[in-house]
Batch of 3 targets.
Target 1
Amino acid sequence: MFHYTVETDQSTEEIIKTLEANLKKDKFGVLWEFDVQQKLNQTGLEFSQPFTVLEVCNPHEAKRVLDKNILVGYFLPCKIVVYSDEGKTKIGMPKPTALIQSVDDEELNAIANDIEKRLIASINKSI
């Protein structure tokens, strides 16, 4: 699977707040919070499902992968999505290991695996 997704009964707002705190503990910052529902509604498109994209980054890790292969910048920053679906709040992300496979570099695969484990841990601590 290209993604990791879990669900909770907590609201999207609660999860985002908790997730941001857990990410911060592991030196990942939220660079941007994109409220897709709000943006679509502002443009006159009806969308009733809460859907937020968090772009997260650990600067040290970003530098590590960019120093190794500048094309990995195409995958940065990491994305975590929080949305409501059928009465549940879902938290998910594309797996860094799935994205990095196209670069075909074992050292980058190892870095992506480490980052993925840390992001999953932050997600799991939040639910």
Target 2
Amino acid sequence: MTAAPTPADYAAVRQRSADLVAPLSPEDACAQSMPDASPAKWHLAHTTWFFETFVLEPNEAAFAPFHPAFRVLFNSYYNGVGAKHPRPQRGLLTRPSLAEVLAYRANVDERLQRLLAQRGDDAQLMALVELGLHHEQQHQELLVTDIKHLLSCNPLFPAYHALQPDAGSGPAQPLTWHESDGGVVEIGHAGDGTFAFDNELPRHRVYVQPHALASRLVSNGEYAAFIEDGGYRNPALWLAEGWDWRTAQGLVQPIYWHREGPGGAAWHEFTVAGLVPLASALPAVHLSYYEADAYARWAGARLPTEAEWEHAATQQPLQGHTAEGRLLHPQAAQGDGMAQMFNDAWQWTQSSYAPYPGFRTAEGAVGEYNGKFMVNQYVLRGGSCATPAGHARATYRNFFPATARWQFSGVRLARDV
């Protein structure tokens, strides 16, 4: 996507969402597997609601909503806009139908494209459209992870698509350590005219202690060794809240891992291609912060800070396995140097999600986008295999509560030197 989105950019992003839902039945698209996830149909409607509410309503001559009720039904968390349908009850919205939601998208797309043709030189308008497209790309990633969680709840373990991850052969490549002298470094978006979310600003200086980062993500084989060594049974490895959560949930393995075969001897992993044998060399994903932190402690290491991660990431090429590859699963590390920095798995950091020095929220309802969530969450970096192409960058800050496991979240180890 260019800095100033074109009509073609808009059409491509919107089509990508429709393509992601195309393999689903209307029943698939309506179901909600847990309160943190949303139905695919709701994602399609909410991203359309964003354009209708924040772009068309204040800018379209003689604006009229596609359907007045949609203003409440498909509002997510924008209190400044008005009432919202309760998030845990989104799966109860059997009406409007998927067909009507698709008609809603077509209607808003036609009107938006007409507005772009008339006012493509309006910088303020184009900034809103650009935000809306990046917002939709965020929801495209959520579409994938929410669909995967939904299908994992089905004992048939149905596949979302047939393309299986390339398991490679043998164990993961050796893990090495890359040291940094630390010092005063700059992090945050440079404000150079390219897109960034408000939580990436402003750029500022931080002091980083000397440290080392692992050359790749923790592999399935390494995480399996943690399990076999009693990692889920040893409270000394866990934060107190993490141990209480693990105990209350009865957790003994990652969310999508299953024991199969005679005596349950062989690990399998649920993927978007269904249940497949666990590949030792692939990154361990769908781990909570608590699991990531416990593993790091077991390994004699720790999680990186977001400043350590970003300082290293800015020196690496922005490449990886994006959602357009359609495998929708991280791949084994390859090559020398720092591997898997981008677009394989989101990487937990030990940094709490908080505003940067000098952070200011935007005026109006759009200002609710990130700032009000800066509490009780941790920062993840790097993008995942479900992140759309061109969406990840070194300064991108994702954030989730410590219990979140349904995202493609993995572990890159750090240690002090």
Target 3
Amino acid sequence: MRILFIGNQSGTIVLFRKRLIEKFISKNCDVYTLTMDNNAENFKQIINIGAHPSRYEFSRSGTNPLSDIYNTFKLSKIIKELKPDVVFCFFPKPVIFGALASRLAGIKKIDVLLEGLGYCYTKHATPDSFKKKVLRTVQTTLYRIVLPRCRQVMFLNPDDHKELLINNNITVKSTQVVGGIGVNLNEYNYYSPKIEPVHFTMVSRLLIEKGVREFVHAAEKVKKVYPNVKFSIAGTFDDNPGGITSAEFESWVKSGDVEFLGQISDIKSHLENCSVFVLPSYREGVPRSTQEAMAVGRPIITTDVPGCRETVIDGKNGFLIPPWNEDALADKMMTFIQQPELIVTMGKASREIAQAKFDEEQACDLLVSVILS
């Protein structure tokens, strides 16, 4: 059987689809990947996994409808040439246009995984702009056209399933909530946290909706009381419409309250060197970064919003806080500083929850069984 993965960037294939590809290959499947870039190093790694990478032309964050239509027809030609038995699309734009292009190419078995609903469906503290409302309406309309024509429509969390399908009365052939994509629990094993000094970290692109602004402002408040506490963010700029501006970033760097590490390759070592993992995001699928932090035994502070709430039992392995609330975030940070024993006990609880809910082997087995069904 020939299976085609359609995603956005080749780096996500390497980071998040490696084990899934290996499992398909073990089932005597030929795996092909299509991404919007052709990064040579990533393509080399994909080939080493055993898959066949190629590029398709699309703007990851562009909103030009004529360009999207043109590129959809171009993508359909590539799909027709590859002749896959099954197409598997993930991330919003590849789901919409990858599935549409697959139908144009005559593919009958199209499975999609929505790993979060993205920018258009993420609520902010301020009212949505007119442009964002229009984009959400357009995106929902496209989902109405595309999703009923897919064989399987999968979600990571039940909130996304309800908001997109139930609230918009979109009827699909088959749907299920599959949970997080999981972590290699042997690679990300438990590591006793360091608590001198307490170190709070985020692993995130510098996007407003990831809660980067709340993290920085909370760090400023905590630093005034506990100047030795450490704060860091591992992540870089993004061309998403919700990206932090360079001017705001420069002001944060100048203040010195948070250390900005940029893109780092060894996430595991970084997590091992932190005390508490923080993700004050406005919405997620089920965040992989939080799953990784839980696997190494870190307590979590995150928001009580779709996707994020799937990772924390409030008071057991961390704290759930309201979104957009830097005061609540600072308060929970100070709780860990004042009661450092919680870092250890809640971190161990995180590891136990990761073993029960976020085992990559189980997550990949479920996707394989669905896609090969």
